[in-house]
């Protein structure tokens, strides 16, 4: 993340709803080839997340009480300069769907002639549905952390997290017109149901899946990214998931 700077006073759009200028932005990457597979994008990192995942690489920006440090005007300026170079803008986090201003920001990106991507862990399924059904997103990277239930709370640190995330997954399954990559991140002390998660996602008809091995970079202090034999376990899991028949499967080792 870069292009930081003080945020201006917030605005409201006509009709009283949140404006793009209300978005709390923690950072802006002007060009990325990894945040939307196959696309060259700018990435907007939104401040704040309701969950406390132990491996979060953007742990420093999960506190929702911290104001944004990048004003929306910087995003507008970047889009004006990068026509013909960038395919789109990805809203990441933190958790972008936490913020009511996301829809207004996505409209502005669309209005500037760019595609809109979204990274989400799915804690706000109703807001995700509103974005999808309004035609405001072209691609979603959806993180699913475990099967619904107690193991989900172990990862997300919040009760009911699994039900919300899988409700968001159902939203995406109901809207195949929006490209979606479902992602599972594994780590040594985490849930051991990775293959069951992938099988359930495949049974819902989702065609694209990615297995990601957690890294220590950017994670909270004390997070354990490795263990004896862990790399071999993850590679074995990748082989098993690859045999499930997804149209596209990606393995992203640490």
UniProtKB/TrEMBL annotation:
Residues 1-20 are annotated as: Disordered. The keyword Cell cycle does not apply. InterPro entries: Aldolase_TIM, NrdG2, Organic_radical-activating, rSAM, rSAM_sf. Its cofactor is [4Fe-4S] cluster. Keywords: 4Fe-4S, Iron, Iron-sulfur, Metal-binding, S-adenosyl-L-methionine. CDD domains: Radical_SAM. Signal peptide: none annotated. It comes from Schaalia naturae. Residues 44-175 form the Radical SAM core domain. It comes from the Bacteria. The keyword Iron-sulfur applies. This is Anaerobic ribonucleoside-triphosphate reductase activating protein.
């Amino acid at each position: 993340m870069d292009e930081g700077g003080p945020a201006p006073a917030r605005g409201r759009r006509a009709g009283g709803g949140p404006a793009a200028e209300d978005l709390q932005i923690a950072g802006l990457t002007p060009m990325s080839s990894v945040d939307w597979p196959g696309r060259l994008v700018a990435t907007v990192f939104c401040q704040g997340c309701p969950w406390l995942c132990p491996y979060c690489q953007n742990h420093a920006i999960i506190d929702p009480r911290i104001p944004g440090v990048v004003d929306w005007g910087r995003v507008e300026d970047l889009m004006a300069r990068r026509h013909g170079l960038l395919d789109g803008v990805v809203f990441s986090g933190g958790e972008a769907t936490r913020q009511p201003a996301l829809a207004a920001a996505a409209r502005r990106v669309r209005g500037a002639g760019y595609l809109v991507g979204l990274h989400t862990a799915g804690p706000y399924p109703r807001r995700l549905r509103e974005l999808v059904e309004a035609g405001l997103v072209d691609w979603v990277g959806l993180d699913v952390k475990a099967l619904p239930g107690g193991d989900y709370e172990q990862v997300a640190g919040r009760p009911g997290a699994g039900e919300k995330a899988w409700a968001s997954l159902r939203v995406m399954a109901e809207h195949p017109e929006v490209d979606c990559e479902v992602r599972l991140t594994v780590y040594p002390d985490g849930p051991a149901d990775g293959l069951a998660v992938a099988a359930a996602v495949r049974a819902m008809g989702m065609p694209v899946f990615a297995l990601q091995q957690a890294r220590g970079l950017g994670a909270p202090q004390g997070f354990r990214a490795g263990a004896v034999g862990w790399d071999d376990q993850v590679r074995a899991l990748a082989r098993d998931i690859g045999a499930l028949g997804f149209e596209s499967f990606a393995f992203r080792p640490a």
